[in-house]
Amino acid sequence: MTNSLRPHGYQRTPLPQESAPTPPSPRADEPGQQATTPPAASPAGQKPKQRDAFFDNAKYLAIVLVAMAHSWEPLTDSSRTAEALYMVVYTFHMPAFIVISGYFSRSFDLRPDRLKRLITGIAVPYVIFEVAYTLFKRWADDDPTYDFSLLDPWYLTWFLISLFVWRLTTPIWKLVRWPIPLALAIATLSAVSPDIGDDLDMQRLLQFLPFFILGLCMKPEHFQMIRRRSVRIASVPIFACALVFAYWAAPRMSSAWFYHRDSVQELGAPPWTGPVMTLALFGCSVVLVSCFFAWVPRRHMWFTVLGAGTLYGYLLHGFLAKGSRFWGWFDDYEWLHKPLGEIAVTIIAATVVTALCTPPVQRAFRFAMEPKMAWAFRKDPAEQARSRTTTAA
């Protein structure tokens, strides 16, 4: 979901209907943000729309996989099995988040209230955590010269700035005739363009773009198709084949391909591999994302409520994930590289990120993740007029 650690409610409800949809909050799709804003006044006798447990379940399970993959990264040099699991998970965990992001961005436009939520829900947390991660790296890695730059996202913050750009361009993608082929063409050109540079982590922003556009083009019936019993059954041998292939490829292929952060030239590959790998990885990711969605529970589970806090778990667990490397935990404790140690690391990672998604943590860090910032914006004249009308009535 992320920069690698390498050098580098909740009742079962149907999916939103396509006809006359209730515009979702621009923060609904981010890993961890609340899917609903304070509900507006509803017509008498009409209940406010409830969240779909399926998407909260999908976000929670994906963030657990993210934390587990980060815990496996230091183990991949000594364990071929860990490397294979790492490669499989990296094939679909971030694409799954980004597809959901695109799906819930379908109704985004440049309306003032949505732009405000875009700023407070994405841009402001990006700035806050870019500063926090910079200070943390200076202290934990004993690197006081590390420079702060909003143009150079560090570690996990690349996703926030990418989501900001993707969503801001949503009205354009809704206008073009063939958005997915166009996004794939842009991703391919990015993969063979080493001169793009590192500003805004542009390689990753452009190479992951097709997944956002795919979600933007999806409709509720597509998710219904994915969740059919036949797809669930087929996903078992598909995942098994993916694991077998990854086990074979682990010593032969660099996992840096799955980060989408470099051009093929920077990976030491010839330019012709750019289109091939872009299309191949996109196809593999779409298949595994579909298999993942097929097994996500549709009903309310004990962890469904945590789906509203996945952005908290995503950003906060980064301090522990990076700290474990800065402080040499995996070097100091050899038993972590044994099978039982690998299992223990996996359980600890899943437990920690689960705790970081809980409501108490959300309340404690809401000032950074979901600041209201009413002082920073002009009041909407139309909203003021409605308030005066309601008061007079």
UniProtKB/TrEMBL annotation:
Annotated spans, Disordered: 1-49
Transmembrane segments: 54-72, 84-105, 117-136, 148-166, 230-250, 276-295, 302-320, 340-361
Transcription found in the keyword field: no
Domain Acyltransferase: 53-357
Keywords: Membrane, Transmembrane, Transmembrane helix
UniProt cross-references to InterPro entries, sorted A to Z: Acyl_transf_3_dom, Nod_factor_acetyltransferase
Pfam families found in the cross-reference section: Acyl_transf_3 (PF01757)
One Gene Ontology MF term: acyltransferase activity, transferring groups other than amino-acyl groups
Low complexity compositional bias, start-end: 31-46
Protein name: Acyltransferase 3 domain-containing protein
